TrEMBL record:
The keyword Signal applies. The keyword DNA repair does not apply. It comes from the Bacteria. Keywords: Signal. This is Copper-binding protein MbnP-like domain-containing protein. It comes from Chryseobacterium vrystaatense.
Length: 275
């Protein structure tokens, strides 16, 4: 009988100790749902030198053409942050109303266009990924799924009729041999449902490594500074020249496919601020 009572007391004590240990462990490692904010800065330039001055800054292409820009606009969407373990946080994926932005050089402040993201999970992020343009999945949601962004795009001249869709990149300016004296207009983008229309899909996703970890906390709002080298327009992986055949183009012709592929290499992260 004494042995039975001793064993009973032993098991009771053991269970209390176990429950207490579990409770302490839970208290030491609660699920952290802290969120913070993050800023992405885009700076357009030539050859990794920022701050293009519209109608003034002149660049000589690899083919020897001189060109400048009177308009530089492009759409970024589907921003994704990738942490040290490779986990992804997707910011309003395929939701243009909340997750798509128009980078317009005319809006630059001291050469920089700012994007502010909120509700970012606390974490250490090593990479950033984003789409150049609007994905087909988002576009095919129709007008009800993106009415706010559609209005913004229309106001910015970054849309065709609703059936045709968005302008992804708008580059306008002048080009020439001795000096920029001939106007050009290259507008890239998808024309409606690319599968149904049997046309190229010009939406591209770009992944960039961060030279310094972006540490998002409730107190720290990192700033990721991205340089866009617009020299890649004509001097990228495929050397291009503007001619009377392609200097006024809209949509997804082969020339604009080549332009798109060149532009996907124009981005790099210059630095990250954690403050």
């Amino acid at each position: 009988m004494k042995i039975y009572k001793f064993l009973s007391l032993f098991f009771i004590a053991f269970n209390i100790f176990t429950l207490s240990s579990c409770k302490n462990n839970d208290d030491d490692d609660p699920q952290d749902i802290t969120t913070g904010n993050l800023q992405i800065k885009f700076e357009n330039g030539f050859n990794n030198l920022g701050d293009i001055v519209l109608n003034q800054t002149v660049q000589t292409s690899a083919a020897g053409q001189k060109h400048n820009f009177s308009a530089v606009k492009y759409v970024v969407s589907n921003i994704t942050l990738i942490d040290e373990s490779g986990n992804e946080f997707r910011y309003n994926e395929n939701n243009p109303d909340k997750g798509a932005f128009i980078i317009d050089q005319a809006d630059a402040l001291a050469g920089v266009i700012y994007i502010d993201l909120n509700g970012i999970p606390k974490n250490n992020y090593k990479k950033v990924k984003f789409g150049l343009g609007i994905s087909q999945k988002a576009y095919l949601l129709g007008q009800d799924g993106q009415a706010e962004f559609w209005t913004k795009a229309k106001q910015k001249g970054m849309s065709w009729s609703w059936a045709a869709g968005y302008v992804f990149v708008k580059l306008e300016g002048k080009y020439g041999t001795a000096s920029p004296d001939t106007e050009f207009m290259n507008h890239t983008g998808n024309m409606g449902n690319v599968i149904a229309n049997n046309t190229p899909d010009l939406y591209r996703e770009i992944t960039l490594n961060l030279p310094t970890t972006a540490r998002v906390t409730a107190q720290i709002k990192p700033s990721i500074h991205i340089l866009a080298d617009l020299n890649q327009f004509l001097s990228g992986s495929k050397i291009l020249s503007l001619t009377t055949e392609n200097n006024m183009m809209m949509g997804s012709s082969q020339h604009l496919v080549d332009v798109t592929n060149n532009l996907t290499t124009m981005f790099k992260v210059d630095h990250v601020h954690n403050d």
